[in-house]
Amino acid sequence: MKQLVDEAERIIKNAESAAEIAPGLAPLLAESWELKRRLSARISDTEIDNLYDSGIEAGALAGKLCGAGGGGFLLMIVPPARRTGFLEAMGRRCCVDFGIDSRGSTILRADAAL
């Protein structure tokens, strides 16, 4: 898994635009999810596996469960051209749009002045 992180870092650093990142990261994300699932039978369950499969069928390139046990979220890479169909298939209520930038993590609050 460590080698995948190093490869992902290389892809991100060498990309000239955000659009170049997703196609390179998707196979790494898929591989890391499969490796993580092999660590323990408790990493995933039928509900998570079905949600992952539904996301792939709806147009995602790859995904991975992130977060702590008993909670978290399913991160999926979806190309822009497939996002409308993905959202329709998955339901907007469970999807959070995000992007990649060079500033790092940013917390946005509705009640804070920007």
How would you describe what is shown here?
- With 114 residues, the chain is mainly α.
- The chain has one domain: GHMP kinase, C-terminal domain (Alpha-Beta Plaits).
- It is 46% helix and 9% strand.
- The chain contains 4 helices and 2 strands, in the order αααββα.
- The protein has helices at residues 2-14, 21-39, 46-57, 83-90; strands spanning 62-66, 73-77.
- Strand 1 and strand 2 (73-77) form a beta hairpin.
- Helix 1 runs antiparallel to helix 2 (21-39).
- The longest helix is centred in the first third of the chain and has 19 residues, at 21-39.
- The chain is globular and about 40 Å long.
Summarize this, please?
By secondary structure, this protein is mainly α. The chain is built from 4 helices and 2 strands, in the order αααββα.
Q: What is the CATH superfamily label?
A: GHMP kinase, C-terminal domain
What's the count of strands? 2
Strand order of the largest sheet: 1-2
Strand percent estimate: 5-15%
Spatial extent as radius of gyration: 15 Å
Please describe the structure with a list of short key phrases separated by commas or semicolons.
about 110 residues, mainly alpha, Alpha-Beta Plaits, two-stranded antiparallel ribbon, about 10% strand, globular
